[in-house]
Amino acid sequence: MSKTLFWLLVGSSLAVALYAVLGYAFLTPGRTVHPAMMAAYAAHPWRILIHVAASLVALAVGPFQFIPSLRRRRTLHRTLGMIYFSMVFIGGISGLFTATIAQGGIISQTGFIVLALLWMYTAGRALRAVKLDDYVAHSEWAMRSFALTFAAVTIRVQLGIGFASGYAFEDFYWMLSWTCWIPNLIVIEWAIRKNRFKMHN
Question: Which residue, among 45, 44, 40, 16, has the nearest Cα to 28 in the 3D structure?
Fold first, then answer.
């Protein structure tokens, strides 16, 4: 990954995390979302706030785990890693509950449930790899995990594209529960396999 692309990833992650902090710390929960979602926020504020809080910490911490100079500082890398993975599991579990009230019906809800399960699964595999001293596998699974964390960014980009295209919220939101993370996994899997090819040639 080029430095420009990497810092764009870092910047967008921090921007969305900051947006979430401002939106949920200083505004009534649900004020920053589409009116169609406000009722769900009003009825279930805590499950959503827990999910958002954990997810934004993971989103803010995650990118720095891939900076080589920081990764070489093992104590810092381990500490940030435990914060990241703890937030993924908290965000994933609360995400499962939040998914059941997602707008868009069964297709949308299923997409977010699958995302939450995969998010926790990839994090679990990354932690297991560390315990087995398999640092290559740890790095690859951590990359997959953060690709899923980055869904918080891609869904907002896709929301913007949807609104800018003139479509009604209810006409396109149902598909975002899938399109916000599947392309991320495809891209990161391509990058992982490309790196494997370089290592063996």
Answer: 45
Residues 6+ apart with CB under 8 A from 125: 137, 141, 144
Q: Which of 181, 140, 150, 145 is nearest to 14 (CA)?
A: 150
* Tokens, residue 42: 């009003």
Burial of 74 (0-12, 13-18, 19+ CB in 10 A): exposed
Rounded mean pLDDT, 120-139 = 95
> Which element (helix H / strand E) includes 172?
helix 169-179
What pLDDT sits at residue 71?
82
C-beta neighbour count of 82 within 10 angstroms: 12
Range of the domain at 179: 3-199
Max CA distance (Å), the chain: 56
pLDDT in tens, 36-94: 666 666 666 777 888 888 998 999 898 888 888 888 898 999 999 999 999 999 999 99
* pLDDT of residue 119 exceeding 90: yes
Question: Structurally, how many domains does the chain consist of?
Answer: 1
